Amino acid sequence: MNRAEIIDLLIIYPFIPAGMMLFTLFCKTVFKKDISIFTTNLSVIVQYFMGGSIFLFFFNNPSKLVFPLNGFFGSITLMFDTYKLFFLAAYMATTSIVLISGHINESFRNYQERILLLLFFTGCSGIIVSGDMFNFFVYYELMIICAYVLIGSNKKYSASLKYMIFGALSSIFLLSGIIVNYLYTGMLSFPGDYSMPVLACIFFILSFMLKSAIFPFSWVSTCHSAARVGFSAMLSSFTLITGIFGLYYLALPGLRSNGMILNDILIIAYLSSLISAWNVFKAVKIKKMIAWSSVYAVSNAIILLMHGQIFYSFVYISAHSIYKTVMFLVCRTDHRLSKVLFNLCVMTAGGVFPFMIFLLKAHHNVFEESLLIIGSFLVMAGLFRVVPKGDVRLTDNATWVFLMFLILNISLFFFSTRFIDFKAQLVDYNSFISRIYISFVILGVSWLTAKNRRAQVLYKETKEFPMRSLNRELAVSIIMFLILILTFGR
Amino acid sequence: MIEALIIIIGFFGLITNRDLIRKIMCINIIQGMLIYMFINFSAHSSMTPPILNSGDISGMADPVPHALMLTAIVVGVCFNSIALSIVVKIYRRCQSINTDDIYEQS
C-alpha cells in the first residue's frame, strides 16, 4: 500500500462505518449500542495507525503529494505536504486523548451522536487532506454541521444556534472568496502557483477570523462551553485551528505581496491575544476560561504566522491541541493526578520554561515580548484559580491520560526538532537565561495572584447568555469586512 | 447589480432581525444570491449547455460553476434542515423564537 492509498483511507475509513450505521439507524437490534461504541472506538484506533504510517512516510521524506481520491469519490484531488503533518498531529492527539479518557462513550451517549461523531471525523480528516478550495469548503461544512447538532445534544440549543449563525456567516464569506477567485483566475486549487485577487483574500481572511473567533468576535465562550466535555475538547483543540489552516493555505499566499494587510492582521491578533487573556482572568466558569484560553493560543499562533514563522506557529497549535484537550477532560475531575495534569497544562499555556511554548515565543522584539508576558500572566493567573472538583468520571483513566500527555508532548518535541532549530536559541545565552528568569517570575506572581483570588466562587452559575449581543456581533463582522475593504482600497 | 443589492438586504435583515426564522431566511437569501451571481457571471445566453455530443467544446458554458453550486445548494439544504429543527427545539423550550425573549427566559 502506497502513501496515497493510506491518505485516501484516512477519509474513507470513518465515512463508511458512519454510512453503515446510518442505514441501520431504524433497525431494532439488541447489540446496537455495543456495535456503535465498538465501531466508533475502532475508527479512532484505525485512523491513529493510518496517521502514524503517514507520519513515518513524510518524516523520512518531506515532500508535497498531490493525488486523486480513487474509486467511489471520483475525481476529487487530495494534497498532503509537510505542514499538514502538524494538523494531522493535532487531530490525532485530540482524538487519542479523548479515546483513552473514555469520553467517546461518555460524551457521545447514543447511536445518532456516534454517527455524527464519525461524520465529524470524516470532515476533520477531509480538511487536512483537501487539495482545493471547494473540497475544503465541503469538508468544513460536513464537520461544522455535525458540530451544530452535537453542541445541541447537551440541551444547549441556543448556543448551538449561535454557533450555527456565525458558522453560516463564515461559510458565506468562504464561498464568496472561492467564487471571486474562480471568476478572476479560473482556478480552484490552493494558491501558490498563481496569484489570487486581493478581494478573494479579504473574504478568506474574514471567514477565517470568524472561524477562529479572534477579536472582535466572542461567540467561542458560549458555544464551546455548551457542549459535553469530550466534544468541547474537540471543538477547542481542532475545529478552532482550522481557521489557521485556511489562513495559511488560502489567504496568506495572496497576501504575501501586500504587507499592509498583514500588519493589520498582526495588530488584530495582538488585540485578540490580550483581550482573550483578560477574559480568562475575569471568567468565573471553568469551561469558559478554557475556551477563552483557546482563543489566546490561536491568536498567538496567528502572530507567529504573520511574522513568517510558519513551523513555530504550527508546532504551537499542535502543542495547544494536546494541552487543551487534557485541560477540558481533567478540569472537572477529582483525581489527584488530574490536579497535577491541569497545573502542567496551565504552565504549558502560559509558556513557562521548560514547556515547549516557551521555546516558540523566542523570536519577537521587546514590545511584542512584553505584550506576550502580560498575556501569559493573565492566562496563568486566571487558570491557576481552578481547583479541579469532581462531577465528571475520569478517575480510572487519569493515569492513562497523564501518560498520553507525556508521550504526545515528548513526541511532538522530537518531531519539531526536525523543522525548528531549538539549539540556535541558545546562541544568545544571556537572552535565553533572562527569558527563563522572567518566565519563573511570571509563574510565581500569577500563582500568588490566583491564590488571592481563589475566594471567588468558581462554579457560580452566572446569567450569561449573550444571545442579546448576537445582532451586535453580526454587525461587527460586517463592519470588519468594510474596514478590510477600505484597507484594500488604501 | 441587483444580486449585490439583494445580498446587502440579506445582511441588513440578518443584523437587525430578532426573529430566528427571519435570520435563517436572510442567510438563505444571501446564499441563494451568491449562487445565482456565480452562475450568472460564468455563463451567458450565447453559450450552449455543457453536453458533449462531438469533440467541439467551443461556445459551451463552463460546467465547473454549475457542479460547484449544486454542491453548495446541497450544503445549504443541510444547514436549513438543522437550523429549523434547532429553532423548533428552542420554541418548545422557551415558547418564543425572539432572541430577547430567549435571553430573558434562560
Helix content of chain B: over 70%
H/E element sequence of chain B? HHHH
Major sheet characteristics of chain A: 2 strands, antiparallel
Rg for CA atoms of chain B: 19 Å
Sheet/helix structural class of chain B: mainly alpha
Query: How helical, in percent, are the residues of chain A?
Result: over 70%
Mean pLDDT of chain A: 79
Query: What's the CATH C level of chain B?
Result: Mainly Alpha
Q: Based on DSSP secondary structure assignment, what is the total number of beta strands of chain A?
A: 2
Strand content of chain A: under 5%
- Cα(first) to Cα(last) distance of chain A is 53 Å
Distance between termini of chain B?
42 Å
The count of β-strands of chain B is 0
Q: What's the overall geometry of chain B? A: elongated
Task: Sum up the structure in keywords.
heterodimer; A: 490 residues; mainly alpha; two-stranded antiparallel ribbon; 20 helices; 2% strand; globular; B: 106 residues; Helix Hairpins; 4 helices; elongated
Structure report:
The complex is a heterodimer of chains A (490) and B (106). Chain A has helices at residues 3-23, 32-60, 84-100, 103-107, 111-129, 133-152, 157-185, 198-212, 220-226, 229-239, 242-255, 259-282, 286-306, 310-330, 336-350, 356-360, 366-383, 398-416, 429-453, 470-489; strands spanning 65-68, 77-80. Chain A is an all-alpha fold and 490 residues long. Chain A has one domain (3-489). Chain A has a two-stranded antiparallel sheet. Chain A starts with a helix and ends with a helix. The model of chain A is unreliable at 461-467 (pLDDT under 50). Chain B has a single domain (2-43, 62-105), classed as Helix Hairpins. Chain B is an all-alpha fold. Chain B has helices at 2-16, 20-42, 63-94, 99-105. Chain B has 4 helices and no strands. Chain B is elongated. In chain B, helix 1 runs antiparallel to helix 2 and helix 2 (20-42) runs antiparallel to helix 3 (63-94). Chain B starts with a helix and ends with a helix. Classes of the chains: A mainly alpha (490), B mainly alpha (106).
